[in-house]
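Sample intake — LLM class flavin-dependent oxidoreductase
Collected from: Roseateles agri
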Amino acid sequence: MSAVIETIVPTQQSPIQRARAPSEFPDSPLSQAFKQPLMLGLFLNLQDIQRTALPTSNTWTFDYNTRIVQQGEALGFELAFSRTQWLPKGGYDGEASLDSFIALGAMAAATSRIMLISTMHVLYGPLHPLHIAKYGATLDHIAKGRWGINIVTGHRAIEHEMFGWQRIEHDQRYALSAELFDVVESLWSSDEDFWHRGRQGWAVNRGFITPKPLYGRPVLVNATGSDAGIDFAARYSDIIFVTSPGGSGIDAALATLPDHTAQIRAAAGKAGRTVRTLINPVIVSRDTEAETEAYADAIVAGKTGVQPGNRQYDSDAHAWRGRKDGTRNVGRGLGGNIEIVGTPEQVVEQLIALKAAGIDGIQIGFFDFEKDLAHFGASILPLLKSAGLRL
């Protein structure tokens, strides 16, 4: 057996090849999205969120979330994301949680324009670079260049332990992910067999995948607030998903985001690249101040005694260190890291300020996706166009 292994494992090492970014292709979906002054996205809940007793239309089901994505696509939204978590029994807020990698990929067959970004924990075995490269190229063709990966390295110890490992040190996770995507990009771009023996443990012998992605490679995204994560984004990602360093209150966010986004742009510029920034607000809005206040108060009142189940698990995520909740906490647990509460005019004023603070797009969470997205389309979107934030 050892003699056979020696005959198929060569000593040579193929050079790393960086795939062209989809933004380098003028007709790619990503290039079209980047034309918008403020990109719009949906931050879906593919799990049963039970943070309040106030009723909503929301469910974790694939059919419901696909309808929401189709609703967003009809309004011209460019992006759809969802988080994915790996938690033991009792860790989720409600009864079920779908996997973002599979669910967002499957939505490609039910949509035609919106980009679908699958969250993937890339270091949880047994995923191999060949798997990611092949799965990614396949979904890229199904979606016609509209699919991408939200690269997650895993910040909870409990998740690593579920896969039989101890949690990897924070910065080392990004070193592992960097080598992983060096290999994946080489597989996406190489026209010959690829060999790799890496310092971080990734090994490929005569690796090859076909077909290649349509626009160089799929869209790559990562969410981070650490220096290591920003450095990774500067070298690999098209979009970086940021958290407000100042907390969820809009005033604190606007005070701290300019320096944060400037750091990201400087890091990307040093790497000879441009990276766009996204942030995920929860938007609570009705047509009048009285209606908006009543809606926000009802959401907060319904949270009495409700504790998020998964907050008990240890996390070493840097982006959330030292953050303070907003005065209302209306967005807490609903998928947003900042809160935007107000009439349509007030919402637009806050989005204009976020754009001025260096934000290129928003991934919106809503308390009730079906109803609140309809209100956004009818009452807020026209004002965004009038303000020059939408083409």
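Post-analysis note: The longest strand covers residues 115-121.
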